[in-house]
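If you are new to this repository, start here. Below is one unmodified record pulled from the training split, so you can see the exact layout before writing a loader.
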Amino acid sequence: MINRAVITGRLTKDPDLRYTANGNAVASFTVAVNRTYTNADGEREADFINCVMWRKAAENFANFTHKGSLVGIDGRIQTRNYENDQGNRVFVTEVLAENFSLLEPKSSNHQPANKEQRQPSNAQPSAKPTEWTTQGSESKQKTYEEVNGMNKNGTYENESTQQADITDDDLPF
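And here is the target side for that same chain:
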């Protein structure tokens, strides 16, 4: 069975970071995703997709995103239900986010004026996206280079530094 959800959109508000009784962080947020078509009036509509993220990734997500942030979310669809105060059964469908990517540079103009800066004063803004990955309870930030297979020397890991010895007779065309 396959249960995979990959969405790209903007946060409708700052992520809501809370902690369980056991001390586990959980972030709830909604991503607005534009539909690929326009309605009869020529306007593009959007879907508002509820998401939840756990543990260290949730803390990182809450620290580095805000309302309007362009994010990529990779996870799975999850359904749950509960009984509300009126005794009615409520069904919830949401994306359980496992990985996320920040799709805008830190210097983006979408940061609210009253949002505190969460980076050191000597940090340089990056124009490259960042991806966060969760492995169990651990979370690791991957740079653009790591995500795309580039090593510290600026070459791709599968890129050979030696010249290939190929003649025209070796080519199939």
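Two things worth knowing about this chain: Residues 119 and 146 are 21 Å apart (CA to CA). The helical segments are 55-64, 144-147.
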